[in-house]
Amino acid sequence: MPHHTRYEPNNQTRSKKSTSTGSGNGNTRTHHSSNVTYTPTPVSSAAAKRQKKAVGKSQLDNYKVKQVSGVGVIPFIANTATGTKLRQISFEKNREFYRKKVLTSKYNVGEDKYEDTLDSYKTYMKGRQEGTLDAYGRTISKSGNGDTRPVVEKNVGGRTILAAAPTEAEVSQSDAANAAETKLTKRRVKARGRKMNIYAQSKDKLTLGKKTLLGVV
Prior knowledge:
5 helices; two-stranded antiparallel ribbon; alpha+beta; 3-stranded antiparallel sheet; 5 strands
């Protein structure tokens, strides 16, 4: 009789069973059958997440740029020793910005927030290349008129809402208006100062020259 092995997660006992059978010639045969059971060591979901994050962080720490596929001038230059070195430097600068600015941003919250892992970094870079994320990982809103601006939080009436951030043109106009107002204020201050100076001189006791003919006193 063949040996049978079965696995029962809820049973941790190990047992052996012997049976005897008789043959026609009066001899007795003994058959051994064994039942082996075990329970795998459970791993908590929190521990699994920590382990996954640790592996992802290690991958991001030690990442090296890959060879550029394809033929032509660009892949050839990119795959040279100098090209590979420059691409590695570029990656390390992007990684540094990602860790210092994106991960620590006040907008990096919620279940889908970016993490210090290679997979999360790839998701961020993909969004940047596709134009769906700004430099800080915020989703860029797209309206019907082609307006693409990052979404920011605004406090309106005591409630926090999401709104499109001002465009570069709007920021430039605002800066120009502020500069013009500052310049006008300075002119007013200078004019007020001259007026006060003239008024102060008018109070001094000054004598006026007498009228003369052709400049003769």
